[in-house]
Amino acid sequence: MASRQSENNAQEETSPLTTPNANIARIIPSLPLETRWPPFPLRRYANFWLPEVALKEGVPGVHSCFEPRPTDVFLASFPKSGTTWLKALAFATLKRSTHPPFDDDHPLRHCNPHDCVRFLELDFNQQKDELEALPSPRVLATHLPYSLLPGSITGDGERSGCRIVYVCREPKDVLVSSWLFTRKAAPACGVDARSFTIQEALELFCDGRCLGGPQWNHVLHYWKESVRRPDRVLFLRYEEVLIEPEAHVRKLANFMGCGFSEEEEERGVVSAIVELCSLGKLRDMEVNRNGSTLLGIKNESFFRKGVVGDWSKHMTQEMAQRLDKVVEDALQGTGFTFASTA
Ligand code: PAP
Predict the structure, then answer these.
(1) Which terminus of the chain, N or C, has fewer Cβ atoms within 10 Å?
(2) Atom of ligand 1 nearest to the CA of 305
(3) Where is this region: Disordered (predicted)?
(4) Is the pTM of this model over 0.70?
């Protein structure tokens, strides 16, 4: 029990961590292993449970070879918190002069958002040249915890770091979305996860033993940085973006240094971006109905209900209270809460 409390303790997790380096790969076999959340084996490194494959290749590659540009924008999130949506909104906003949202051949009409905005740590070594060839300003994404991003991105010494946009979501909805996604997507990785129950997922999630977990520590560290450096880290809440998408697109644009002009406002560019990136529109596109992207996972798996509170259809009140209590205990004294302040 003592070790679990220590694993979940938010104060401990957000203290400065040693910088990972290209040697992570060598110590992987000695790191704690978790194989119960399909489909990937996870290893506990620097207080977070991460896919073994990302630790072997992506993270060392990012730390040793990735060269951020001052104009880069990074979209960060814990998995199943609104990443796909944020990718679409940020890409459509930042690239609107080249790709106006009204265009019939807008990239989001024939590519999945995960193909428009790549994950940095996924196959970094394979996509290095591709990422380097992207025109500035680039928009890239990551599920890595803040403490595992290279200092060249977060800012160290003389460097002020890149802009980071983080999207967070209420833990019970994240858990249910992750669990359903796992069952649906695992077969693409050759794993049958039909017998993976919500009870098993809950236990693992409460212990932080899921991809990127503990979820609340992932969120907390980005939130703290957004309070410390609001000009560099923008913290968004999925639930609030759902309520006021246009206001959030304007906020996103201002933060990325490409605020909307009056003329654009008059032409309805903001609402066109929101419409283009809406769940209904994206889900209906041919590429998202029949295509596949990341690791061969079907694009349709990234678009489900996109609502607040769907956890209640899959979890009992007792299960919900258990997770709420774990999160409440872990966040005690941090000043952060998942309750929306809007
Ligand atoms: P990822 O981390 O694997 O990329 P991510 O996009 O963060 O996944 O999460 C998927 C969730 O975002 C799904 O939530 P649900 O399971 O509760 O329904 C998905 O439906 C939702 N989502 C995807 N696209 C949109 C969108 N355009 N608008 C609102 N929600 C969306």
Answers:
(1) N
(2) 18
(3) 1-21
(4) yes
